[in-house]
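I hope you will forgive my troubling you with a question about protein structure. Here, with my thanks, is the record as I have it:
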Amino acid sequence: QVQLVESGGGLVQAGDSLRLSCAASGRTFSAYNMGWFRQAPGKEREFVAAISRSGGTTLYEDSVKGRFTISRDNTKNTVYLQMNSLKPEDTAVYYCAEDSSIFSTILKATMIEYDYWGQGTQVTVSS
């Protein structure tokens, strides 16, 4: 059974940084691309970033480019989201997710392409 457990969220001020972690278990972590999504109050869940199996390729939503960095450590079965220069509009519950396709070579930005999800971690950025 696949489990994804996020951590690292919290309350910060605008301009601060946070690093989210997502620990995975249950299937071969290095065989799957990983993604981060977020959901703000009253809004739909949206794509934030994705990373390839090796970590060599990444994809970002436009509003976080240059501020957020996704990375992974396959020896620790963990994916990270480093968030710098945080803004109040980054306030949301952040979810990590695992691609539904093994050995995929395409990074995906839609929820339907991911079949396992964590429980989410709250990030609140005050102005």
Remarks:
- The two ends are 40 Å apart (CA to CA).
- Residues 77 and 119 are 17 Å apart (CA to CA).
